[in-house]
Design goal:
about 110 residues, mainly beta, PH-domain like, 4-stranded antiparallel sheet, about 15% helix
Length: about 110
């Protein structure tokens, strides 16, 4: 079974070599895994923003945004509570493993 993450207003799943992202307003995005870039940045009040877009394949698939090249293209930003980040990291780590891409280390502190 291919990876899938369902949280609040979003569902993400891998379909072959593409990440599909759906939201409750029936918007959908498809990003080839070889171009997928996900960055995590701090926001206010203990929240984070997960940015999903594209970048070079020689970059980590999932990384802290302040220490990594930014995502490009039609970027989706999802606001989450900090305690939700490990679930997103686990999902994108599984996606990265599927396509042979690295995941940058992220401090839990």
């Amino acid at each position: 079974m291919e990876p899938k993450l369902v949280r609040d207003d979003h569902m993400m799943r891998v379909d072959g070599d593409v990440l599909e992202v759906f939201d409750v307003q029936y918007h959908a995005r498809r990003i080839p895994l070889v171009w997928l870039a996900v960055r995590v940045e701090p926001a206010r009040n203990g929240r984070l923003v997960i940015y999903i877009g594209q970048n070079n394949v020689d970059q980590p698939l999932y990384a802290p945004g302040k220490q990594s090249p930014a995502v490009r293209g039609d970027v989706l930003g999802i606001g989450i509570d900090a305690e939700e980040e490990p679930a997103y990291r686990a999902f994108f780590s599984e996606v990265a493993q599927l396509c042979g891409r690295p995941v940058a280390a992220i401090s839990d502190s």
